[in-house]
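Q: Can someone sanity-check these two? First one:
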Amino acid sequence: MARCTAPVKGHRTAAAAAACPVCGSHSRSYSSYLSYSSTGSSGGGQSSGLRSGSSARPRWSRSGSSAVYTPAEVRALTPIRNSVENLAKLPDLRDVFLCHAWDDRQGVAKELHDLLESLGVSGWFSEKDVRLGVPLLRAIDKGLANSRVGIVLVTPALLRRLPAEGIADKELSALLARDRLVPIVHETTYEALREVSPLLGSRVGLSTAEEPMASVAVKLAELVALDLCPVK
C-alpha cells in the first residue's frame, strides 16, 4: 500500500506534493484548478500571478527570469518583498544578513554568499565582515541592524548548534523578531527543523531538495533587487 512521503520528505513545494504516491493526485487536481483559474479569469490569457499550473510569477520577478516559484513561495515571500520596498529609501543597508552554523562557514555558507555576490547582492557574512579584534557579538548586532533581509541557512550543522545556544542561536533569535526572514533548508528537512525550532520551522522558505543552490540564489537576488522597487 502506498504511503504518504510527507513525514520524510515534506510537502513544502508543489513538486514535492506531486511526487508523493498518495498526495500526487490531489496536487495534480490543484494544479489543474490553478491552470483553469489563470486562463479562465483573464479571457484566455495567463493572469499576472500564474505562469503555469503549479507555478506562479511574483510581481518582483524579472522579465525572462529563469526562476520558477510555487504559489506557496510567492505568498511567503511577498511580505518580505514589501519590507524591502519600504526600506528602499535607506541606501546604506546591506541586502541580506546570512546566519549560518560555524561549521558551514567555509562550505555551503560561503557557496551561498559567493553566489549572491555574483548576482550583485550585498550581504553581511561573518567570514568577510568580522575584522580581527572586533567583538563578534557586537559585529553581528550591527550586521543585523544594517541589513534588509535575514537569511538562515538551515543545515544539519545548524540543527546541532542551536540547542547549545551559541552565536547562531543569538542571531536566529534576533531574526525571528523581524518579519524579514527567509529560511534556506539544505541537506535536512522542515520536520527536523521543527523539532529544534518550531518558530523557524513554521516559516515557509526555500529548499535545495527541490532546486539547486544556484536557483535559490537567483530567487533571493530577485527578492532584494532595489532596481525593481516602484518609485515612491
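And here is the second, same format, sequence then C-alpha cells:
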Amino acid sequence: MTEQLKFTPLHSEHKNLGAKLVPFAGWEMPVLYSGIVKEHEAVRNAAGLFDVCHMGELELSGPDAAHVANQLVTNDLSRIDPGQAMYACCCNEQGTVLDDLILYKRSETSVLVVCNASNRDKISAVFRARASQSCSVDDVSDATALIALQGPLSFEVLARAGNPALGAALGRFRFAEVTIASVACTVARTGYTGEDGVELFCKAADAPALWRGLVEAGKPLGLLPCGLGARDTLRLEARLPLYGNDIDETTNPLEAGLGIFVKLDGADFVGKSALLAVKQRGLTRRLVGFEMLGRGVARHGYPVLDAQENAVGVCTSGSPSPTLGKAIGLCYLPTEMSNVGQEFLVDCRGKSIAARVVQTPFYKRPATR
C-alpha cells in the first residue's frame, strides 16, 4: 500500500514555480526548481529560500519547561539567555543519538524545540515521557510554518521585505518577534547551509504570503527558491550532519565530532553516563571529511576500504561540491586512520577509488561577510 504523502502549506507555491517534487520523510517536497548547482550558488553568492515546514516543532510550557528540556539534551540550556537558541543532541541511555535539535529559549518557562521531520513522533514521545506535572509538551508542527532564508544578502532581502534594522539587531543564534512582508514571525539567525541567514516561523496559514513576499523582495538581488538537493550539498560543504546518514541511534555525538555540543561538566542528562564512559575509554572511530582523489563520487552507503581493500567503514554522505569543484564526503574511520592526510579507498560500484581525509568544514564563509 502506497504511503499517503503530506503537503506543507507551501505545496501550491512550489507547483506554481515549477519545482520537481519528490517524497521525503513522508512529505512531498521540492528537490529542485532551476537546478541544484544554480540554487547552491545562489545561496553562496546571494540568497536562497527553502521550505522547511516539514520539520517538527514542540512547545514546552510551564515552570519546569527549561529544566525538562535540559534533562534530555547534551548541551546546557542554563548557559544561554532568553532570546537565544542552541544546537544539541537528544540521546538515549546508551549515549547514541535519537535526533539533533535546535532549542529556542523564550524563558525559563517556555522553550521551543525543533526536531527532524522523520523523528517528530519519537522526540515528542521522549519529551512527553520526561515532562513533569508543571510542564506541558505540545506538538505545534501542523500549525507552524518554517521558512529558511540563507545567503550573504539575506538581510538585504529582509530589509526590502519590511524590516531594514533587523541585521544589526539580531546576533547569531538569537531570535526575535518581528513583522516581515506584513506577516508576524519569529525570526532566528540560524540555518543549515554554512552561510549567514535566518529561519522564520509563522502560522501555517500565513506561510504562502510570507514566501511570496520574500521571493518578490529577493528577486532583484538574485534570490532563488531552493530545494532539498541544494540544501544537501550546502550542508555537506559546511560539514553539518544529516540525521539518518551521518548520525543515528548507532552513533554517539563524540565520535560524530559534535563534542562541543556535549556538556559533560554541566547538568545531568539522559546518556551522560554512557558518554562519560566513551570519553574515558577513548574513541574507536571518528566521522571524518574526505575528498576523492580519483574519478568517482562517493555516495551514502558506499563501502570504505583500507589499503588492502578490507572494509573499515561506510560513506555516510557524499556528493560533488559545487563550490570546491571536487567530490567530497563524510565517513566513519577507525581512529588510527582518521588523521588529516590519511589516504584510503572508496568502493564506488565495484571500483576502488582513492580518497584522502581533509580538514573540515570543507567550506567556511569569508570572514568579511
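A (reply): Looked at the second one. The radius of gyration is 21 Å. The first helix runs from residue 11 to 16.
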